[in-house]
């Protein structure tokens, strides 16, 4: 069974399940894209952040500091703090209720967030809306990648899981288009931008009702007959005995673990836990969300007018979506590690070049020349391009496939919560960092990218083509560094059985 590829057919129903579940990513991406555009709209600033608006009007105001406001940053970042906490509740819901009901709950919270945000009359309502959005994001980001990894056939698992990130990028692009359209709808364009978030929420809400539950989740909850039927349905074939037995064997071993979070603290669980957490830290410290959250604000800082800055974000939103297709095609062919390492080189060059241009040419007042501004936009596009086929999708794919079933939802909850915490830090701190570090902020992110490359070379194993329930045996126990942790697991397990 070392290299066995189980039989499967890609049916219309299976495709529908993948796409509908991936709308959880579209919800997340829409929010990432919409908040930055709304933050730069004059009508929004006048109503909720008048001091920022007044500061923005001053032509002599420091280019790097005119948007530095903690409450404005809290508008964006509060969502991710809520998502951090929600991911642990989502982990429990995933295990006890199943993946399908948890996805349904994610959409319900997101719909409530859209209603509160669009109807906000004061900052409190605005932040409550963001928190509800955050709970929806926490539940969705915890459940959807796990769902996709569990329903995908091994030979296509990378591509199927990356649909989550693809829909994140589509959500970001749609948000850019919406912001561009609503920026001229005075005085309530921002309400339309925030309210349209209900659309992907509705699709996920009704779509989740026709999703199948994953075989792993059904077996975990003692529904073996339903699990076999679900496996046949998602594989499109009747011969599923071998795969079913492997999943069942993994789930039976998992039943001996009554406290998955406690199990995660054991030495044998450290390899996937460390990898899962570090990938989230590194993903955020590429600087991608600093650009995505505040792209319109960033381009206004560079001297673009409001409409031009929103249009620029649409351009690299398109680049983001198109480049994610590269990952879908390549991830199961050339593997995870090569994509990550190639991207480290390209992102390092782009971030360093952007930093150098701003350091030399963008002073506290004034703006870049049109030619240099275009160069910066091109560099941002090249940077977004390689992130979209590497650290973006791999940050969700790899943690969803490296944990054994007994700690899968708990381990992925740590990964999601780490991602949300780091996203919160970046969202809360970026405008202040931009004010104080100025162009040096891009060198700061470049240093992190260098560290990421070193981490991948020495510590990240390749998981391409390995069945999700065979990762421990075929990856961790043969890795030159991590196998030392797994040996103790085997010894302790023998002692427990004795």
Question: Keyphrases for this structure?
Answer:
498 residues, mainly alpha, Growth Hormone, Chain: A, 77% helix, globular
Approximate helicity band = over 70%
Q: What's the average pLDDT?
A: 85
Oligomer: single chain
Shape: globular
Which class of secondary structure composition applies to the elements?
mainly alpha
Low-confidence stretches: 489-498
The N- and C-terminal alpha carbons lie at a distance of: 29 Å
Supply the CATH architecture.
Up-down Bundle
The CATH homologous superfamily is named MFS general substrate transporter like domains
Strand count, sense and closure of the main sheet?
none
Approximate strand percentage: under 5%
Number of domains: 1
How many H/I helical runs?
24
Provide a descriptive summary of the structure in words:
- This protein is mostly helical.
- The protein has one domain: Growth Hormone, Chain: A.
- It contains 24 helices and no strands.
- Helix 5 (99-118) packs antiparallel against helix 8 (189-195), helix 6 runs antiparallel to helix 7 and helix 18 runs antiparallel to helix 22 (440-459).
- The longest helix has 30 residues, at 408-437.
- It starts with 11 loop residues before the first helix and ends with a helix.
- The model is unreliable at 489-498 (pLDDT under 50).
């Amino acid at each position: 069974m070392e290299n066995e590829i189980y039989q499967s057919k890609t049916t219309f129903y299976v495709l529908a399940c993948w796409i509908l579940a991936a709308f959880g990513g579209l919800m997340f991406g829409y929010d990432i894209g919409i908040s930055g555009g709304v933050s730069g709209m004059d009508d929004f600033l006048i109503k909720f952040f008048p001091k920022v608006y007044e500061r923005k009007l001053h032509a002599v105001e420091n280019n790097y500091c005119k948007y530095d406001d903690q409450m404005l940053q809290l508008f964006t970042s509060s969502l991710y703090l809520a998502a951090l906490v929600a991911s642990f509740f989502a982990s429990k819901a995933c295990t006890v209720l199943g993946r399908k009901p948890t996805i349904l709950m994610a959409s319900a919270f997101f719909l409530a967030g859209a209603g509160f945000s669009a109807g906000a009359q004061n900052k409190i309502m605005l932040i409550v809306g963001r928190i509800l959005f955050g709970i929806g994001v926490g539940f969705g980001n915890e459940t959807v990648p796990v769902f996709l990894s569990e329903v995908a056939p091994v030979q296509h698992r990378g591509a199927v899981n990356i649909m989550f990130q693809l829909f994140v990028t589509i959500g970001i692009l749609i948000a850019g288009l919406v912001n561009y359209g609503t920026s001229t709808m005075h005085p309530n364009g921002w309400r339309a931008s925030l309210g349209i978030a209900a659309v992907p929420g509705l699709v996920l809400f009704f779509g989740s009702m026709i999703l199948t539950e994953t075989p792993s989740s059904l077996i975990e909850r003692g529904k073996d007959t339903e699990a076999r039927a679900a496996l046949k349905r998602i594989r499109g074939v009747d011969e599923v005995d071998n795969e079913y037995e492997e999943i069942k064997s993994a789930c039976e071993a998992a039943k001996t673990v009554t406290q998955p979070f406690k199990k995660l603290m054991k030495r044998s669980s450290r390899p996937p836990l460390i990898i899962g957490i570090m990938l989230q830290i590194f993903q955020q410290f590429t600087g991608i969300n600093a650009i995505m959250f505040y792209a319109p604000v960033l381009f206004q800082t560079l001297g673009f007018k409001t409409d031009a800055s929103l249009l620029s974000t649409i351009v690299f939103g398109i680049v983001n979506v198109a480049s994610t297709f590269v990952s879908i095609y390549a991830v199961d062919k050339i593997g995870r590690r090569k994509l990550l390492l190639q991207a480290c080189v390209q992102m390092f060059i782009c971030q360093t070049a952007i930093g150098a241009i701003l350091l030399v040419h963008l002073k506290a007042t004034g703006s870049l020349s049109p030619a240099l501004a275009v160069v910066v936009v091109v560099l941002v596009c090249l940077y977004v391009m390689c992130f979209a086929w590497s650290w973006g999708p791999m940050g969700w794919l790899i943690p969803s496939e490296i944990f054994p079933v007994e700690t899968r939802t708990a381990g992925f909850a740590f990964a999601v919560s780490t991602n949300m915490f780091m996203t919160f830090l970046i969202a809360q701190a970026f405008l202040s960092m931009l004010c104080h570090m100025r162009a040096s902020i891009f060198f700061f992110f470049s240093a992190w990218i260098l560290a990421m490359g070193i981490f991948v070379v020495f510590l990240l194993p390749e998981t391409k083509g390995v069945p999700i329930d065979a990762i421990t045996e075929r990856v961790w126990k043969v890795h030159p560094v991590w196998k030392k942790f797994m040996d103790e697991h085997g010894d302790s397990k023998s002692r427990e059985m004795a």
